[in-house]
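Researcher: Please translate sequence to structure tokens.
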Amino acid sequence: MAPNDSAETNGGTRGTAAGRRKAARYIVPVAVAGVAAATIGLVPALASSGDPDLPKISAQELIEKIAASDTEQLSGTVKISTDLGIPSLGGLAGSFAPGGAGGDGGKGGSSADPQERMTELASGTHTLRIAADGPDKQRLSILDNTSEYSLIHNGDQVWAYDSKSDQAYHATEKQAGEDAGRDAGKKSGHPVPEGVPTTPKALAEEVLKAAGPTTSVTVDGTAQVAGRDAYKLVVKPKQSGSTIGSVTVAVDAESGVPLKFTLLPAAGGKAVVDAGFTEVDFAKPDASLFTFTPPKGTEVTEADDAKAQHKADKGLGDLIPGADAAQLGAGEPGAKNTKVIGEGWSAIAEITTPGATGLPSKASGDVPAEAQQFLDALGDKVTGKFGSGTVFKTRLVNALMTDDGKVYVGAVTKDALVKAANSAS
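Model: Translation complete:
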């Protein structure tokens, strides 16, 4: 195995000006919080046949190799699973899920709607088949034992099909941009809802966005993933208080395409996010993969109809007053009800919920018993200069909701959230 070179992004690291500008697309840990909050993870045990002997490369050169990669054609199989450590929702899931008894009386939207189906990747283990032929043709399929869910983008047309229910979803590119995160889809190689990356490349790009003084980047040996020789790029926070221990990206030595992405928690244990190819081919995929005609008898939902249904759903607002508006504010950097405390891996978003309302309680009669059990299982009561509140925890993203209606969220520890709330008081 070749010697490993390393570089710490301490503000003094220099490469070519063009290379640094390209690399600037890549390392903001706040994005990792978004990745985990919305979604993902993977089966750690991927095929490996030893550490290949590759030429020495520096961390800076490897980042630039990723940025310079122009691969637009590929197909393959990706294994993906997530372990955020969230307690099981049990019967509560059916009550608040789209189409569930507590959602809209069982009159939910299409089971093929990407906004609903892609959230499946937030937990468990999944096998995906992907194919891409340039920015206008992508296909992603989630495979089950007896069924398949496929999302196909071809030119200005986006189709999704659920073979189990025989339902389809159709949108034009403009509609997909509004409702299914078109821009995010183009970046990641397929049209999926924004904030739901599903390939190692998309996950790596969420992390590698802007090298800075809060981050250490090293090359830590080599590996073989899906039969391809790869370098291992390791990204670690320098700051204390982050729940993220490290991110390892296995980068194809020839093409610069990320083949595997592994996110380990600072607390140790199995990976929170671990996604990688088990098979990959960089040849031009067959054109038939990007065409779709609904089978006879298929129920087709148009995007405009689905959009109207989404607006009709109350969503989290039934459970946490102001939650929907807070989510909107969190997605808008200039929103008046949202600000960021700190920077880098320890950045925390402070969100003021409309009406400054805190969590409802069982005692007040605002939530059903099952919902209260779920909230209690997730939360720890805390107090401080800010007053009192509840910290909701996962293995990666934690959130403090104060009794006076403020929310502090980030990929940081409980103590870091309390400190931020105290400093803002």
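Researcher: Any highlights?
Model: The longest strand covers residues 215-225.
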